[in-house]
Protein 1
Amino acid sequence: SMPSEMLLKIFSYLDAVSLLSVGCVNKRFYELANDNGIWLKLYSSSLQPKWTIWKMKSKTETVSLGCAALHDKKPGYWKKEYIFKQTSAFKTRIMRLVKLLDPYTGLPCKNKEAMKVSGLSWIIVLKDKNGKEHVIEKPHLSFKDTSVTILWYGTDWPCLDILSTLKLFGVTPLLPDQSRPPNKNGPRRFSLIAEYHLANLTESSVAVGSDELVQLFSLSPGLLVGIWKEKNEVAFVMASLHYNQLLERSILGSATVQYAPPPNKPLLDDIDPEYGLHDYSLHLDLHGRSCMYLCGSFKGLFCRKGDIENGYLRLTVVSLKDNRKHLPIIGTLGICWETDVFKGNVKDCFVMDLTLLDETGKPFWCFSAPVYMELSSKASGLYDYMGHIYTADYVDSEGKVCVEFVWLEETKEYITVSLVLYVSTKKVNSWYGTNY
């Protein structure tokens, strides 16, 4: 029953975040909280005092900061302009932090710092077949050299049988304030990272492994779903996100459309389909969410014309015959998981983080994904290693990875004896604008 003039006076003392929040109370508050006079004042105060002229929609407008003639603008116009200005400045500040690259991995050096400054978090949204959405927050994070592993679990998740999709979002405050931590109840911006279909999950996805309590299923890209064996219900969800373009995908997308990176601009060099790829670098991590099993870097990778067949270019990283590059696995391979009550470890599987850099040091092919091992039918013919051979393969639209391990019973450890990358010719052609 309070007069609108009095409410507007009260609203004029609020900051932008409070105005956005009070606009959610009811329709009347929403209309009053869109008042152009209030938002122009906020917009003007965010400018330097000497700024009275700026470009807007490719036209130059001169605005008197004390002007009250706002009737030519639709309600909410200056609110949108203020939000656009603040979010643009925020994105610029974050992207500036990740410009410095690590020569070791070819990835931004200050990823963690940028994530902290942005107030970035990740959530999953489970949608059932009736259209109802269930938002799962409060993830547990584990940072590695080139990826972050995110684990969600809870006791009130919907039944697997009624779930249709799972969406993974990056979430940041709509109007971040560097002077105070982000308010989880304040307005937020959602950026869609990936969407997964959960219908017929156990039949349509890849079974990674199991222990006494759960069975793991992998969905591309980089998602692992743990299912309770007894109840056939979701126990936890684990996502592996590679640092390459992680911030862009988590911040620059929208709630409905994923971020699309710009196409590569190749440099003029000696790339020639007759010559093949040359001087590539690889950084490889194998881990189990909380522990590292292998970390290796390889330089000077190349392929010749004879290494191109069946739509792939082969890059041999570790050869079966060259034991100088054979790498031991530290610890027992497995993926650790936990919920509110139970903990476990699914053996013979791990998360693979692959970062392949081109000859200029730019990330060419990057992923972080769960991979499982299986016993090979062939026995080791190596003089140095007598034991069972295990294989672990990964495939996506950009290429394939084939790894072979030998199990040494005497020392109770795995040795990596073969590692071969198969890069899709379509990926290479789109990257260089050539025709392999």
Protein 2
Amino acid sequence: QLQHPSAEVREYACASISRLLQQQHVIPAFVQRDVVRCLGPLLMDPSLAVRETAAGALRNLSACGGFDVCDDMVTDDIMTPLVALLKECSTGLDANQLSPKKCRGVNKNYIEDIANEAINLLWNICECNNTALYIFNKEGCLEAVLHCMKKFATNVDLAISVANCLQAVTEDNPDLLSSFNASAQQILETVLLCPESTMKHILLRTLIAGTIWNIKDTIPPGSLGSTVNAILKIFSESLAIDAGETIIRMNEAEKIRLKLAVEAETEENMSDTTENCVLGEDDNMEEILKGKLRRENDVSDLLPVNKWELKEVTALLTAQQTALEIIVNMCCNEDPSDEEWEELSSSDESDLFMENSYNEGSGLLLSPLCLSDEVNSAFLNNLIPKKILEKTAFPNSVALDICMHNPSWKPLIKKLNAVQCRALMCLQSILLVSDVDCLGGASALQSLAQHLSQLIFSKS
């Protein structure tokens, strides 16, 4: 069906594959049947809808398949059509090409949606494969990616995808630093100063702050202090938000929205029934089913578009987790690898982290004298240790109960635990590179002791 003359059939074939690729156990069967070589050419399909669904299917493959699958995708030359698609999207963004059809009165911008899928795919692959990162540098993809970032004021989802990609490609990639000229840095600074207060915008600013930390070597020494302070101010704002209260508030908002949606749909169905009597029941029902099928096949995103409250909470927890990870990196010579983060998130993370920290010659942690004045001052000015200390407490019990009894919200429990774990790791790092008083004196240490005792004796 991917080779079918009808663009609509090709689109539905891509959407069906996209849905199946969200199940890890079927991925090997698709890989064995050269799914990458089948879907790759469709990234440049004449139909924009096919391009989007093909990119979404490949995005799901890269996200759910892991490192080995991403390596296979690069071997199968996915980067050639992907880079071509990305550059074409970059040049077409200003054309504001909308769908000729409207879905419930909302125009769909195909170019921006295709760019979003393509950049997510690029992010996943570059994070897993050094060859992909080399191609990113060589082909000048940074310019195209930054051009997409300029849409942050009207398309925050696209901007978040770009920010995730930027943070991944700038980490330990000195060959890319020369590409961050004054114009590129101006784009990042503009996003950093965005005043919007939604959880998605908080995540966006946090990711951009992380990218700026990765490229700090391009910043003039005279501006480094103010830059570090700006970065930690963003992290402080993110960590200051109570995730538990946000979960309670957003869950209540979801209930209200769903109730209103049911009432609106009931009213719409009654109206449709009346129209069917006049216009012809069969023809109208066919249009309704087509619209429903089109919405159901929008499966390129692993989190459905109608879960916006859940997306907001997920964005906040991701922002807090990201901020805490970067703060640890600020205190370290070497960034913990993904495998180390997973190990440190296990039940014995404290012992393992301390053991690794003190291994002779590992150079993981700096001595107290090595923490720069800029970072140390920014930590204190933005109350970073205090905010981290607060995150070591157990999550709100009411919020946990909401997540436990709502299947779509249940994955948030893991994210809440990850934030708590990383907060503890941050405290370990800060205590090893800074003065104990930075935590706020005896009362703060007593609070920390209470949190730790709860952790030790917890059965959860």
Protein 3
Amino acid sequence: GKRKSLNNSVLYDSDESEDSDVLVRKVFAKRHCIVDEDESSREQQPDKTCPTENVSPNKRQKVCAKLKELARQRATRTSTSSGTCEVSNGGAEIEEDVLCYSPLTPKEDSETDSDSMKDFIVEEEDDDNTEHVESENRPQWKEENTSNSELLAYYVPQLCRCDHYVHFKRIVKAFLINAIDDTFLSSLYDGARQKKYARDMLLSLHYLDDRFIQPRLENLISRSRWKDRYKERVDCYPDVRIILKNPQNMPCQACELKRYCKFNVQLFGKLYNSRTLEADDFMSDDTQVLKVGMICAERTRIYHNLKHFKYKLYVDCSSVTESEGAEDEPVKDTVERLFSQLEDSGWIQKRYNDLEEYMDDADHFQEEK
């Protein structure tokens, strides 16, 4: 019988064309038992009488008294934003400032629903008053100077990223301060200065080292065959000259591979501290001359430009303070004046463009074949 009903439920499409031979499953509606409305409504209605027909009169009175007391407590209880909830736990009552909800009977729901929603309904205010309140709470942005980054910085400051050029300007200002007060950078790295401007400058210095320079230096070294001795020499000397000479078929003094070496790499300058940028006068006239191949010479130029960019920038800032600084002027005023002059003349932007050019050279440098 089941198989027969299954076969009868599968039909073909009434269209007799070849393209319409598709099985169509006939869907039958589910059967529902029709129940008398009086009986169903009688079953669904809860029995409002006290369920104590087969109980003794004394016990029935106690149960009815408890039910009346419970109904009275429910009627007087209102839902508020904060209440005191008493929880019995092994005889101990714990009071917590939480919102207590209790099941309501249909009668109580109709009486207390409107009262409980009063706390959540806000009457519409006049449009003029609303716009006035919103204008007071909203930050006063000038239309011509408003940008998405400024709005993001105001509303979600932890998600706002500082622009690279802003980092660079902070570094220039820190170098100008240290050129006048040579203890500024050391106190900055030691954590002695905790004001906001000092912490921002330290963050920018770390950003320059850890995000701009160091990853690219490691990439240049990892793709080369430089020996450690050659790398240490390039790291120590802040000045370099790469001179074209007659080619010689010899081992390159950078990678020690046999090449047609036609470049002389001349390294010179004072050794300095990478943090405080304080120069060391020990063997200040020392010079190293190394003969390298074409690939190693180009890699040396790119690597050296990035490695010693920060020191060269500090040297330039020091020369500016020596020529333009005033002796009887406070340090803060001198720094602000010099910084404004450098920014207005495009000096800071030019140095930042040099840094971007060095980083692009490192990113696009072809790997040695």
